Amino acid sequence: MTHKTSVLEQESNNEAERLHDQHQSIIIDQVLQKLSTMDLPERERVQCYMRHKWRLNHKPNSLRNSLKAIELFLAFYTRLGKSRLEEIVRDDLEAFVENEQDRGTKITSARTRLMYLLGFLRFLIEERVIPEALLKRKIRLKLPDLLPRAMHPGDVRQLLSVIDHIRDRAMILVLLRTGMRIGELLALKVNDLDIKERKIHLFEGEKNSLGRVVYLSDDALFALRRWLSKRDHKKRALFYGRERDQLGYSTARHLFVKYLRKAGLQDSGYTVHSLRHTFASELLNAGMRLECLQQLLGHHNIEMTRRYARLTDKTREEEYFRAMGVIEQGGLHGQC
Question: Does 273 participate in catalysis according to the annotation?
Fold first, then answer.
């Protein structure tokens, strides 16, 4: 029986890999088809880069976002009176970034487009089309230090109190207690769960392809077990919709907004991503070390995790009011 089961699992995995490869081929064909209709200079080199990213198994969104960034840059480059990539100088890149900001592009979007464009330029450096010195100095954008939007504990309780749908409650509790990104949650397969060990294996992170393990709290584990007892066991996706094998982001967002409205929190400014911020803030305030939280969140750079510590640490707040109490009581000048 065990051997038969392992053979069936292997066949299932092989079929999943075949479907994945087929899907990836469709994506690159769509990207190249779109590129063929664009009136861009050096189109052949852009095609080579897209195929290069595809061979490296880059995600579909990465392919699409790269093409968009390159398209915008080359259109701007043409308006500068240039058509050959060998003519690029650093001023062209800085002018492009300034142009994007002048057009009203959000600074975070401008940074993302620059990141994708730099990937293309590094490819051209490797192909000896442009000199390495072009990117010797970094092009930096000043980003506003946005506050992570964590939910107030009372609002969390209020939100959970109105979610009675078994699947939706499991989804929101898993997001809240694991800190997963919404895309990572929606991509989960049943085989990614280890209920006995109270773990979820994320074999590839949504943003940076870093695999990690997250853990299930008592309430998240209870909600998941209820969902597992009700779900269709023929489905591979852990969470699915009525007509699809996997829920989409827009559907998940709509569900979250619906429950915010039901809880009277529709004007709070919370988003699905607020659940991830809440997870990080609560663990920090409970005394978790920054390095440990970094691993749970799947941050490549600890500075990203440090933002939560700067903006949510209750210890700093307590220290302030302790010191202020001393000041207000006149306990200065060597008397404190």
Answer: yes
